[in-house]
Specification:
The structure holds 2 protein chains of 2 kinds. Chain A is built from 10 helices and 7 strands. By secondary structure, chain A is of the alpha/beta class. Chain A has 2 domains: 2-118, Response regulator (Rossmann fold); 126-229, Arc Repressor Mutant, subunit A (Orthogonal Bundle), CATH 1.10.10. In chain A, α8 packs across α9. Classes of the chains: A alpha/beta, B alpha+beta. Chains A and B meet through α6 of A and α11, α12 and β13 of B.
Chain lengths: 233, 638
């Protein structure tokens, strides 16, 4: 598997390399220390998974994520962060990240996180879940952006999220996805959520990634607007 | 009203205009006196026969009872001067010589005939084409009659004008003219214009112009008393002046005369008070006295017997009114000289200009003046009223314009005030933001001092003294990082409640615990998701919970750790449920070996336990620990 590492700190770059190389099938195809370098490399180097640090000396890792999504739509993007603070993680998810990891995690946890991502499972923590729920509720709360024809919709129809995203504020989450988010927001793990909702743990873990993808799609082309609407900028 | 001198040129033009206008009236009246072209046709002498009677009937118009003596009389012949106290009919006989060629071009023109009149020529009665018969009320109208050729003959003709009037009623006959029809007709029409048409125009104008002033007063009775006084005076004056235009008696003389006289007084009283007020003299007592005089005088006018009315009315009414008027005009003149304004000056000129016409008219009424003249004041005073109305209307317009400007000014001020307010609000918000930022920084500093700072300084101290093993360094560094994570767990944009913060903590610890084979369980009791603590208190709770977990895993070798948050019993009771203080319990339950069985190596002398107690006391809660061989229950009640 081809890995793309964006990390400005030489120590951490080395540490990541050490951790990753514990697995023979993992191969680092690019290791960039700044934004400009990363944006160039993204266009030239095919990869399967990117590990990206958000704080770069000449810009934000968010821009790298956006470029990576454009050039390698199928690749996974893992944000490595010292603190999984809400603003940065949410911004990364809206840009297209599919997972995030605390840098302090043990090497086993790093490997596990990478494997999970490759298996289609994204992590989602209560803060992020609450944030997404809040954004979705604001979007559906009728901020006046709905077309006139849709205002006759009864409230019962609204949470259905039938995929026809009438406006870009509403990522069009399904009722099941909303349930998953609500439980996670209250502190339950995805395993517990699966038990509550009578689904396999694998299914519940897959929901998170689907949610992230919808958020990214809903924000594409107006990332600046989304970020400011969410209070990130 | 503006100060004189600000618009000097305009004022001058106005004053000159008023003076010219006031001059026109007497001049015009003067032009009515027989001119040179009329004088050859003037008949200034007659033979008069007086037949006493009640004066009310017109049946005395015949000379059949010619037993009474005829005496020569000069015209004009005002009765109240030349025949005081006489009431009845006076037959004026004229002898007119008519040339044979002029029989078809002769007319009779009488400038003034008062009260009733009947005319005979060579014994045959004549009537006006307008149908005015013997019973007509002429007051002081001119009369013009075409003398039919058939009634005249060459040589001397006899014309008899029979005038019927009440005693003291200003009855009488002016000089008469018999001559060419066109010449006399022109003179008649000119006099008719000044005596009738112009009066109509002047009085109607006075009334119409005063109406807006009166409305202005109605809208604002207190603020525009001047307008009200003047409007009332003007309207009364204009209306009552129409009495001179009636050629019939609308009421019996006993009511009509007092009404005509009294109404003049009422209108003048309004005007007098207006003059005083215009100069800012507000004499309550004087104004009340004037009102009492007006009412009492009016009552007396109605009470006086009609026969004595003409004799008594001047003393009861006109002369006191004249005296009061002189006084008011004097005061007004004084006030105007003392504090001149454009309006006062213009009005003073107008009022002083009334003195001439007033004297003329009084003499006219008394019969001592020229009997043939017209009433001057009937024209000059309306002129003054009209000019005053125009000035007041200008005043009103100015006031409205000033109000408009004032409104604009106020709007501008309001806008400026709003801008100030907004600016102040902005600066206050900035200050608040800064204060909040400062508070936040201070709290962060405190948090870091309590947590990471303490840990790191202890670590450094231990390292420099060489008392710390590598394992302890790892612990200390991990603990420091843990503190920083706790800060993020405890607060954030989407972290509002205590349950949110605990959920964050659980999520963060879960992978690490899972890696060491420890399972966590999460139990939220009913009603706990609304519990909100301050950020500081939340941080304390998280530290306690984290310490419990660390103990459970490291010392107690637990495999399952359960977090349970529930409302305490007291909080579930209805009366205290609505209380503002959250009352709840946080339990951390593990299935470890218990504190007493923990190895001495890892126990650390119970410092962690003391820390937790201290923290819960700082929160105002209690921390208890139950531990036995099957597990440990840590209980934090708040």
């Amino acid at each position: 598997m081809r890995l793309f590492v964006v990390e400005d700190d030489p120590y951490w770059q080395q540490a990541i390399r050490t951790i990753i190389e514990r697995r023979a099938e993992y191969r680092i195809v690019a290791a960039c220390g700044n934004l400009a370098q990363a944006l160039r490399a993204v266009q030239e180097t095919p990869f399967d998974l990117m590990i990206v640090d958000l704080g770069l000396p000449d810009g934000s890792g968010i821009d790298v994520i956006r470029a990576a999504r454009r050039h390698q739509p199928e690749a996974d993007i893992l944000v490595a962060t010292v603190f999984a603070d809400e603003a940065n993680v949410v911004a990364a998810i809206y840009a297209g990240a599919t997972g995030y990891l605390l840098k302090e995690s043990a090497p086993d946890q790093w490997i596990a996180a990478i494997d999970e991502l490759r298996a289609g499972n994204s992590p989602i923590d209560p803060k992020i879940a609450r944030h997404i729920l809040g954004a979705v509720q604001r979007g559906r709360g009728g901020m006046g952006r709905q077309p006139v024809g849709h205002q006759a919709q009864s409230p019962a129809q609204l949470p259905a999220g039938d995929g026809e995203a009438a406006d870009s504020d509403d990522p069009g989450l399904t009722a099941r996805e909303m349930e998953v988010l609500q439980l996670v927001a209250r502190g339950f793990t995805l395993v517990e959520v699966a038990k509550f909702l009578n689904m396999s743990p694998h299914t519940s873990r897959g929901h998170a990634k689907a949610i992230y993808r919808k958020l990214e799609v809903s924000s594409r082309g107006e990332a600046v607007f989304e970020a400011s609407a969410l209070g990130l900028i | 009203m503006e100060i004189v001198g600000r618009t000097g040129a305009r004022r001058l033009v106005l004053v000159i205009g008023i003076i010219l206008a006031l001059l026109v009236a007497p001049l015009a009246a003067g032009s009515l006196t027989p001119s040179a072209s009329l004088s050859p046709w003037r008949l200034g002498d007659a033979a008069l026969t007086l037949v006493p009677g009640d004066g009310g009937s017109s049946e005395g118009g015949s000379l059949s009872g010619a037993s009474l003596s005829e005496s020569p009389v000069g015209l004009p012949d005002p009765w109240n001067r030349k025949h005081p106290g006489f009431g009845g009919t006076g037959h004026y006989r004229f002898t007119v010589r008519v040339e044979p060629g002029a029989l078809a071009d002769r007319a009779l023109y009488v400038p003034r005939l008062s009260n009733h009149g009947a005319i005979e020529i060579n014994g045959a009665p004549l009537t006006e084409p307008g149908g005015i018969g013997n019973a007509s009320w002429h007051w002081n109208r001119p009369v013009y009659l075409v003398l039919p050729a058939g009634n005249l003959h060459a040589g001397d003709n006899s014309i008899v004008i029979s005038v019927t009037g009440l005693a003291n009623s200003r009855a009488g006959l002016s000089e008469i003219y018999v001559g060419p029809r066109d010449l006399l007709g022109d003179a008649y029409r000119l006099r008719w214009f000044f005596q009738v048409d112009l009066l109509w125009i002047a009085n109607l104008t006075v009334v119409i112009l005063a109406v807006p002033l009166l409305f202005n007063w109605l809208r604002d009775p207190v603020g525009s008393t001047n307008y009200g006084l003047f409007g009332a005076g003007s309207i009364l004056f204009g209306l009552r002046n129409f009495h001179g235009l009636f050629d019939f008696l609308p009421l019996p003389v006993a009511y009509w005369w007092p009404l005509v006289s009294a109404s003049l007084g009422w209108s003048l009283c309004f005007i007098f008070v207006f003059l005083l007020r215009l100069c800012d003299y507000r004499w309550r007592a004087f104004e009340i006295a004037l009102a009492v005089f007006a009412v009492a005088g009016s009552i007396m006018l109605f009470a006086v017997p009609t026969a004595r009315f003409m004799a008594l009315a001047p003393w009861l009414w006109y002369i006191p009114l004249f005296v009061v008027g002189l006084f008011c005009v004097g005061v007004f003149a004084y006030g105007t000289f003392a504090r001149p304004t454009l309006h006062r000056v213009v009005l003073l000129v107008g009022v002083l200009g009334q003195i001439g016409p007033a004297v003329h008219d009084i003499l006219w009424i008394q019969g001592t003046g020229s009997f043939s003249s017209v009433l001057w004041m009937a024209l000059s005073f309306p002129l003054v009223l009209i000019i005053t109305s125009v000035l007041l209307a200008d005043d009103m317009a100015k006031t409205r314009a000033a109000l408009g400007n004032m409104n604009k000014l106020l709007e501008a001020r309001v806008a400026a005030a709003r801008r100030d307010l907004e600016a102040m609000y902005e600066s206050r918000r900035a200050t608040e933001r800064e204060a909040i930022g400062t508070q936040e920084r201070m709290r962060l500093m405190r948090d870091m001092h309590d947590g990471v700072g303490t840990r790191l300084s202890l670590l450094l101290s231990g390292l420099t003294r060489g008392e710390i093993a590598a394992g302890e360094v790892e612990d200390a560094v991990r603990g420091s990082l843990e503190e920083l994570h706790l800060l993020l767990d405890a607060r954030g944009p989407s972290t509002a409640t205590l349950a949110d913060a605990l959920a964050n903590l659980r999520y963060r610890l879960d992978p690490r615990l899972a890696a060491t084979g420890v399972e966590t369980r999460w139990e939220l009791g009913p009603g706990v998701e609304d519990i909100v603590l301050s950020a500081e208190a939340t941080l304390h709770v998280l530290r306690i919970v984290q310490e419990c977990i660390t103990n459970a895993v490291r010392h107690g070798q637990a495999r399952v750790v359960t977090f349970r948050i529930e409302r305490s019993d007291a909080a579930l009771q209805p009366d205290s449920a609505a209380g503002t203080t959250p009352s709840f319990v946080i339990l951390v339950i593990d299935d470890g070996v218990g504190i007493d069985n923990a190895s001495a190596l890892t126990r650390g002398g119970g410092r962690g336990l003391a820390n937790m107690r201290a923290r819960s006391e700082a929160l105002g809660g209690t921390f208890t620990l139950h531990s036995d061989a099957t597990g440990t229950v840590a209980r934090l009640a708040l």
